Records
---
Amino acid sequence: RLLLIAGVFFIAYVVFTSAVVPNGNTQKQEETQPESIVVQSPTEYTVKAENNRVVVYIDDALYLKTSTVVSSLPKSDQKSLLYGIKANSKSELNSILEDYCS
């Protein structure tokens, strides 16, 4: 009788584990494939003139509006801002903004 009970538990265990992990290879594949996390950083900042203010875009999306009036800047700076000034990093952006907004 004890042997019969042990057999029932063993069969139940086999059925349960095969239901939880239908294919042993699937579990191993999941363990060997690392999750890839993509952290997207801005690829390009653009500082330009818009509505007579200095503004910053990240990849064509508005990032920052400053209170600096473009018409108060020297003509050469106004011309540069009309075309847009590119920055490839946050430190480059900060340097440009210090030049125009201080």
---
Amino acid sequence: MRTSHRALGVLSIGVLLAASVVAPAQADDLNVPPSRSIVGSTNTGLSGPLAIEIGPNGKTYVTNFASNSISVFASNANGDVAPQRRISGPTSTLTNPRYLDVDKSGYIWVPDDTKVKSFAPTANGDVAPASSFETGMNTFGLAIAPNGKIFVGDSGTIKRFSPSATGPASVERTITGAPLSDVRAMDVDRHGRVWVANGFDKSVLAIDPNSSGSPTVLRQIKGSNTGITHVDDVAVDRAGRIYIVDEFSKTVRVFASNANGNVEPIKVLGGPATGLAQPAGIAVRDNLEILVANYGSNAVLTFNRLFAIEPSAPRSLKVSGSSKSANRTISWKSPSANGGAAITQYRIVVKKGSKTLVTKTVSGSTRSYTVNRSKLRNGTNKVLIHAKNSAGWGKTSTKTFQVKK
């Protein structure tokens, strides 16, 4: 039974079925090794890593289902390294910690049987929870919305609680019924939509966070074209792309930001080089690095981003000529990081206070632009420049200069 499978360990059924399930071949499969791996038996303390999350401080948070603990690693942790903090012991009262989340203040929230427990941002060792509340069900998945609301789920039900919930807490919303059937993990995107890993239904749902009773389904990714064989966890990146881990096919499948229905993934990360073995949890950093809790090998795997991001700021911005020169030449060097795609344009803006004097867009190969003194204003002027690649406009460099008329 599914409930027994959950009580004993998240992936026990997956071990039996994985050999018989084969995902459809994909032309865009990426069989690449991780860029970093937290793995080893001496220091990591990883034991059945089930869920993974990135805190507001960039650190990596992992639930160890098999050892009733939570590990916190440095953002760049690699190899057989010890966590910076580890919450474990009888005082913590952790038993079967599952999918977790970290709020904007750094509090760690984790479902633990029928309760949700929170731990302080600096919690370490055998420490008591900072708070705890009853959910009224065998809680499995959890996600925190930008407004602090806490969503928990299991089987075919999702409940919403206040962040101040404690004890036998009041439920703000109960969302239940088809197509919810096997709620595992969840993520809340920047628009507040709740994305649900609907495990054995082989689907991913986006639902309205204010649903009550039957879910208001905003989108559903499901069908033979998706190649999904099981959904263990879901994450949404800052561009709105949807990432799922599929333990049976040992893949990370990525869908377009507007994906809906029976659609193919735009990227599939999988194959022997990846080392994916019963992947259970997933998180995506702002720089689009992908982190996977690899239950099957007691490891946390980090993969390089699969998509371009905006470039960094142009370097060495200068304005040549004296304050009385007839022309002023603005020059710069290309960004130190192009974000993984060619720079196609630069935009130059010259301002005096809040008034825009010059706006000019030039090609990605250009490194200077000359402005006639007549377009400038007496006093302190400022030039701003940023670069564009296929992901969009990047960070801005600024420089002030003086004009005398």
---
Amino acid sequence: MKSLQALKAAGLIVAAVVLGLMTVQGSYALWNAAVSAPPATVQAADFKVKIGEKLLSTGQTVALPAITLELGGQPNITPVVIAGAANVTGDSPFRSTTTVTVNPAAAPLVVRVATTTVNGTCPQAAAEYKTSAVAPAQKTDVGTTFCFQTALLAGTTNQQLGGLETKITATVKVDQVPPE
């Protein structure tokens, strides 16, 4: 009697396994099969930008044009065009952010930046200039002009400038943005 119950139980287990295999349309051998796949390559966009005429990759630097300032003179405005040079499309646009700093901070010098969509032309209105500027998302290789306004503080004397070494740093950050 015990063997009849054991036989029924074994038959029930076999039926359940067969029914399960038929449901998922596979076999135990298929579940344990290993197939090797060739290595895959994933390529990401490599943004390259042009600052003026210089082509740059991530992490490279470029010197801005030299400027000359005069006591009591007008501010010097230097246009710098930043444009996409590789992999810039409507599906993978980028945005540039520029920040300027003066070191030492106590130097009698003011440096500000603004952006314009007019290629190579900068606004004169001082209210538009700030310590940082963000360009609109660029979807083509047409550039955005960053305008650097440099001026001596009013009342600056020759004595204040004598022997003063001042460093102006303009940091440009380029980020990929989602398409609109």
